[in-house]
What does this fold into?
Amino acid sequence: MQTIKKGEVMNDIKANELEKKKVEILSKSLNDIKEEFKATDMGEQLIMSADESFEEYKKEYEKSRNYKIPKIEPIGATVITSNMISNIMDYGKFLIGEDFSVDLVKQFKSATSDTQIVLAVGPNCRQAKVGDKVSIRLTDFTRRINPNTVNSQEVTEIPIEEIDGELYLTIHENNMRFIYQDEGYFERRKE
It folds into this structure.
């Protein structure tokens, strides 16, 4: 016969109640969470500013997906790509937490994606073709300011260039990691 100590039973009860609470929290919808935060003015302001920032981000994201092909020909192995921003749509809307920062959404609005579309290539470019979807090595554009000091920091300067009122990335072919092989990839290669 197994003997059960009083402390073990209490621990089991506590664990069971904790599990029930987790299920309750997870089953709450976003509206329930918003209602909970409406209890304070600060919570209400956070929700409103998060919603506004996210709506602005969605507009910027859609705008970055509508690119025009520039009317120029790059020199050497230069590649001109679109300037699409990072996609946070996959993660859904931000759930407001105590550590939420509206500045985080603002950063995403200007965060260049590492996946871009090739819009123009120079005559010495051997791999990329117009229309290819490529992955760019953004770390190539990161450098350290004030190395070996207390004020040392990393800065990423993406080579964004304005051509005919549109923003593009102007990179070297070596700054690309790989080319995505989507449905149209092999048809473009035959041309």
Notes: Residues 1-37 form one domain. The chain has two domains: 1-37, 40-190.
